Amino acid sequence: MANDGSSRAVPHILVIGGGREIPGRLRAAGAQTTFICRLEVLPSIREVERAAGVHGLAHSAPVEAWTELAAQLHSRHPFTAVASFSEKDQDRAAHVARALGLTWHSPETVTLVHDKLAMRKRLREAGVDETHNALAASAAEVVAFGATHGWPVVVKPCQGTGSSGVSVVAGPEQAQRAWDWAAGAEWTESPAILVEEYLAGSEFSVETLSENGAHQPVAIVAKHALPTHCVEVGHVVPAGLSTGNQARVHTFVRDMLTALGVRQGVTHTEIKIAEDGRVRVVETHLRPAGDDIPVLVHEALGVDLVGLLAEQTLGRPALDRLRAADPADGAGAGAAAVWYALPRFPGRVTRITGLEKARSAEHVVAVVAETEVGALVAEVRDSFCRVASVRAVASTAERALVAAREAAELIEVQVELAPEAEAEAETDVEAVSATEGAGR
Length: 440
Fold this sequence. Notes:
This protein has 440 residues and is α+β, with helices and mostly antiparallel strands. The protein has helices at residues 5-9, 22-28, 63-76, 90-100, 107-114, 116-125, 139-149, 175-183, 243-259, 293-301, 305-313, 319-324, 355-359, 397-408, 419-422; strands at residues 12-16, 32-38, 53-57, 81-83, 133-135, 153-157, 167-169, 193-197, 202-211, 214-225, 232-237, 265-273, 279-285, 335-341, 347-353, 364-369, 376-377, 388-394, 412-416.
């Protein structure tokens, strides 16, 4: 494409990785998109034919290869912004943006957010969150940490996603199994394993828009999760917190994002609120939430987080527009929830029933099967093992949550034990508590 004045007037976004629907939102707003991603990501890029360019690199390619390729492309058709909408390769996006002199998260911020050991250290130093953690090279080091800081503890990958490899460990007799579970995690970018204090209390996520270092929490989402491996099974907006707790959460998240150097973008932060009102962070992410949470926020509150992120990526101020929105204008339904159906045991799917009955239930707006007949479903080890989702919208959070959960219970996935699944089947580490929303 010719590099003339008219082409320079069109925003040209370099997307590192995929990004699901967000690159399409950028193009719909008049931008061009070029992708640099790992080779295995190429098949998942949506509407690839509409991109200005798509370039794949091997998983093992060093950061220098990414920055050199980006510089070559930039010299021919300059980029106006760099963006990355999922954890994978956000470190590379940060180095590319710095090399090209474009604004994005700094490499230091990406490291602090992705590396949970570094994040905890920075937040302790900043006086934001005193939670302790440590690397655990063996189960014996998990036991030593528990003896020092008390039981239960949490064992998890240092850099992971989707609750993969996470265990809540009640005592030393469970340490080896939990360590092995973390070591076998699939969705992780590092072999390092962490042990940290267990955070007792109710779990929530906070969806925030940041711009020029100012942070505006948009929604607090109540989370429901399995107690042992913390796999999330439901979310509801709004969370229904008291005014005091909501204010504490907002202040905590602003202080945390500032300490980590976050200056722009949509972030998804998972927190716990203890009975005494103290707020602690579980982890945070430099991207919009998964699990349809942005959809829930849009349906419940009328705020389009993905649209705001797209506008900001195009260089258009988004924070003032968000703050000017009137929550009483009727743009949202009031509340929205999602609930997930889980396989009862691993094996091969022989039949799925109840989907239409769930779709016709009151307040239900979407039912999605996450598997199909003939597929192999694994033991519930992470968020990628769920078999169906149900989304409901209502005037109150309680109604939305009950509707989604009851409709999900109508869905039955019949499974026969397959040899390949039987080999992987394990009994879960004993649960610390039967309370939903256990800490990570």
